[in-house]
Amino acid sequence: MITNATVRTFAPEWWGQVDIFQNFYGGTHSFSTDGKKAVLGVKNHFQKALTLRDVAIKMLPNLAIDEDELNTKGYTSANNSKEFSAVIEEVFTELYSSIDCTRKIITSIYKRTRRLKDSTRKMFHSVKTDQLGSDFPNELKDAIISADWFEELLAIRDELTHSDIGNCHKNQETGAISYSHYGLKINGSPLIIEDVLKRSSELIDGVNNLLGNVFNYLNSNLEKTNINQLCGVFFGRAYMRTLPFEIPIDFNSGTCLSRNWFDNESAYKCPFATSCKAYQRAEPTPPITAYQIT
User: Fold this and answer.
1) How far is residue 217 CA from its own chain's centroid?
2) Taking Cα atoms as reference points, which of 251, 274, 220 lies closest to residue 13?
3) Does 19 reside within a domain?
4) pTM above 0.70?
5) What mean pLDDT do residues 29-43 have?
């Protein structure tokens, strides 16, 4: 049986600074194809990191299988540890990719700034050593300088890019999952993270704060433009509104674009019409009068 799709897609109460930029940057910036991909990549990579962290948490009970194998056989293939390690490693690389996409946007907007290189590593170094031209915004400098975890994430990402998989082990006393990779060297010592889930969550929070600070500033410099926004798909039809760039944005923002047709088709009336202020702002459609021809 085929049923008509019904889904609300406009949910600005869940929007962060990155979402606002994604929706409204077009009125101010003309990015290249790679730049447009970077705009999407900022959130996509960050969401992947969150998803992978959650997957790793779900995989935690599997580590007991390796422990049981070791206790009963005296050895273990550590397959579950390797799987867990592979997933947690991708959390780090996805977080870095989100920052890398952010850097591409920054260097595209401020490409005329002296000594601003098209490299994430070099941009962070130039900011922290105060090498950039005076036209580079202090707000972005402050956001980058406050990311004191960046060098650690950079080192982990660099080493993981071409390495094999590390190992994880559960501390029976604390319950923490340690991650180690003796093939990776950080400042000359093997990479060991005593509580990898805790550290990954801390890095997620750090990256989230960086993105919020960067895009909050970038949003403050966007032109006040309107966009056409899909509200949702109800009864198998798409419902639209015009949405101005006016903070705060909520579900009542903008003006309904679909009222002019669904007012005359009662079977398709928007399910939010009675409570939506965007609907109320739209000009009501005059009723259609049937005339008898004699």
Assistant:
1) 17
2) 251
3) no
4) yes
5) 97
